[in-house]
Design a protein that fits this description.
This protein is mainly beta and 328 residues long. The chain folds into two domains: 1-69 and 182-191 and 198-328, no CATH class; 72-180, no CATH class. The protein is built from four helices and 14 strands. It has helices at residues 9-12, 41-55, 74-81, 85-90, and strands at residues 100-106, 109-117, 130-140, 143-158, 164-179, 183-199, 202-218, 221-239, 242-255, 261-274, 282-289, 292-298, 303-309, 318-323. Strands 1-2-3-4-5-6-7-8-9-10-11-12-13-14 form a 14-stranded antiparallel sheet. Strand 5 and strand 6 (183-199) form a beta hairpin. The radius of gyration is 20 Å and the shape is globular.
Length: 328
């Protein structure tokens, strides 16, 4: 199982003046390309890895990034709502065909209002249906949610509350905030989820988003990340006495930890390994900035090699082997 470090503040603010500060919410901006230099490449490496593995931390079986930070993760929170939706719809009682039905349900404290638009009038969650959950200080399992999640099912076969199903849906975040003892994360944007599961350790999960933004509040510091034209793909399959995982991440990352500037992430080979390993021992990503780039290459499940081209001549100017735990 991939496990990640809860906080690495020495890198998060190193060499950059924009760590923390005021928010530019609710815009989802794409920053100018960042020049990757000897002074900031460690920060870039950490921000890319943290953003990437937090993003793929949406699969119910693959808990990527479980310790990327102590902060909650809105995408994973939304993903874990999916198996609950059929039960919540069933609890609504008699749904009048052709109408939008709404009911408020209790949480441990607070409440969640479920609105069900049963577009094919069959009384269950199925393709074409739209559900929204509006959370009002809803406390469950140590996390408090506020705001709205909207699930629009484009395709659905099988039972979401099982290990055999296929679903494609559009998931929207409307000023959706999750708060834990560590801090809070506010999410805005729309993502498309495409998942196929044929068993507990036989799953494929994809995510695409034209624009998704998170604003993270931790210890009085506010930072933001915007993912533009992002795609991820995860697989999990049985292996001898274990399971094998694979994940790819591609797209543009704009971050306040990068001074509000952006880099482009491209997975050359998937990050992959076995569930029992702490970090992926295989995989390589190329991160491109303004006339500069860095390459992140997994060496083992404990070490990662980073090389930097600071002037865009396709030749590494500095390089070194680091522990995965320095960044995650």
């Amino acid at each position: 199982m991939v496990s990640f470090k809860k906080s690495v503040p020495w890198v998060a603010c190193a060499a950059l003046v924009a760590c923390g500060g005021s928010s530019d919410w609710p815009d989802n901006p794409v920053g100018e390309p960042l020049a990757i230099t000897a002074a900031n490449y460690l920060t870039v490496t950490q921000e890319v890895l943290m953003a990437s593995f937090s993003l793929v931390d949406t699969s119910e079986a693959l808990v990527y990034g479980a310790g990327v930070s102590a902060l909650p993760k809105p995408l994973r929170y939304a993903r874990l709502q999916l198996p609950r939706l059929p039960e919540r719809v069933a609890s609504l009682g008699a749904v009048v065909a052709g109408t939008e039905y709404s009911e408020t349900l209790p949480c441990e404290s607070g409440s969640v209002t479920l609105t069900f638009d049963d577009r094919d009038n069959n009384g269950i969650v199925s393709a074409g249906d739209v559900l929204s959950e509006t959370f009002n200080s809803c406390l469950e399992l140590g996390e408090t949610a506020n705001g709205t999640l909207r699930f629009a099912f484009n395709a659905l076969t099988g039972d979401l509350d099982s290990t055999v199903f296929a679903a494609k849906l559009t998931l929207s975040f409307d000023v959706f905030r999750v708060t834990s003892a560590a801090g809070s994360v506010l999410a805005n944007g729309t993502v498309t989820l495409d998942t196929v599961s044929t068993g507990l350790y036989a799953q494929a999960f994809g995510l695409t988003t034209p624009s998704y933004r998170e604003e993270l509040s931790l210890g009085g510091t506010v930072t933001s990340r915007t993912l533009t034209n992002f795609t991820t793909h995860e697989t999990i399959e049985p292996a001898l006495l274990d399971y094998a995982f694979s994940a790819t991440v591609n797209g543009t990352l704009t971050s306040s930890s990068l001074g509000g500037k952006s880099v482009v992430i491209a997975n050359i080979t998937p990050f992959s390994g076995l569930g029992a390993q702490n970090y992926p021992p295989n995989g390589q990503a190329l991160v491109t900035g303004a006339a500069s780039s860095l390459r992140i290459t997994a060496v083992s499940d404990s070490e990662v090699f980073v090389s930097v081209d600071t002037n865009g001549d396709s030749t590494a100017d500095l390089w070194g082997t680091h522990l995965w735990s320095e960044f995650l």
